[in-house]
Amino acid sequence: MAFKTKQMSTDKEKLILTGLISNHDYIKQIKAFINIELLKSPTLKMLSNWALEYYTQFDKPITIDTLWDVLESNKEFVEEEVYKQLQYTTEHIEEHYLPRLFNVEYNVKQTEKYLALRSFEKLKSNLETAIINEDPEEAEHSLSTFKKVEKPIARGIDLLHDIEFITSMFEDQVNLIDIPGELGKYLGDIYRGDLVGIGGVMKSGKTWTLGEFGKWALFSQCNVAYFTVEMKDFIMAKRLFQGFSAKPKKEYRNNLPVAFYDEKQKTIRTKFYSARKALEDSDVRKMQKKLLKRSYGATFKMYDLSDSGGNVEAINTILDNEEYHTGFVPDVVIVDYADILRPERNAPKVYRDQLNQTWLSLKWMAQQRNCVVVTASQLGRAGLSRDAGVADISDDIRKFAHASLWISLNKTKEEHVAGIIRIHADGRYENHASNDELICTRCLEVGRPFLQSVWKSDILNYDEYINGFSKDGDEK
To answer: Looking at 144, 165, 196, which one is the last position of a domain?
Structure first.
């Protein structure tokens, strides 16, 4: 039986050139195993070789402008058609492959995997040629000289002599998601490899918060993969575009009351906004154009698992297929939400152990893909009658142990009517214990779960304002 051999895409070669242009840490990690001769594309091979030579000489990545200079200086040494192709490739890389955020650890792994497969592909070709030519000596030579492409095995760190490692200890990690206002300061920086958990009782705003994390990530120029397990994708997408456009699902004919904090007066009061028309498809199309400009090449992809439920293994398969077919690699993965995912394959029989395996698998996903994973969990029924926190995590407290950051959402019925939610964060050393509470105003009618964020101690009339609302939805 004859088997058809699938040709390997050169998308990974564009990624290699991107790293050689943009990232010092990436080059340091691949220098030990990269072999430019394994690249298939002649233009990408030539440009990558120039970039690597520049780094070797100057110990810093070549810039795109310098690469253009090198290309111009070599114009007389290459054929006209080759030069045009080099120009086109450089323009393409500059336009599509130089994001603000470069996922170093994940891309190093992908580079190693690609070059290893290319080395086997070349070996296979050499062996086939030797067999066709009936030349066993050539086949033997190909086997004996074959060198496997792999990153050097990790070695121990010499704390007394390893200068490079000591220097890297003091290099700041890069915050991936910019969260506005006091809320962003309180939650602190969010890094690649983090698992962020959001806890709340039923109807506390967990899905709203997950959606907002997706928007913050997109505005931070991150690629976002959003997996909706509970809600249909078109419902969630409409909710997101409500927030982007600040428009309601249905026409709001009355003035819209919103809690507003006056920084000068240090008081909170109700502010009324004029009536608004419902979100329409024309609004979505306009917003798509604005988002394309604001996201600088990042994108937001949504996947509907509401019918099958899915599990972490299924999510990983979807992301692997996306990367292979479209080149999409997420910086932030949002799962709405973890507790209702199906158990993993060969999961324990006890439900709480199944949940623990799901959360542990999400943590592994964050680390293996070098991305941020954000998900949510239902808090216990005790939180219906009082504020809920880490101690109220339902079914298994080990969820909290796997999370780098845990965010608890709380509100009374009066606060819900007033359009206010209280936030408490655990897990980060920066989120020190405090008797104070962070207050966030919101307007869910137009898809905005977080408007202002301010410490309760800074609001002079907070209790008075909240007590002015009845549990039935009216101002007293």
So the answer is: 144
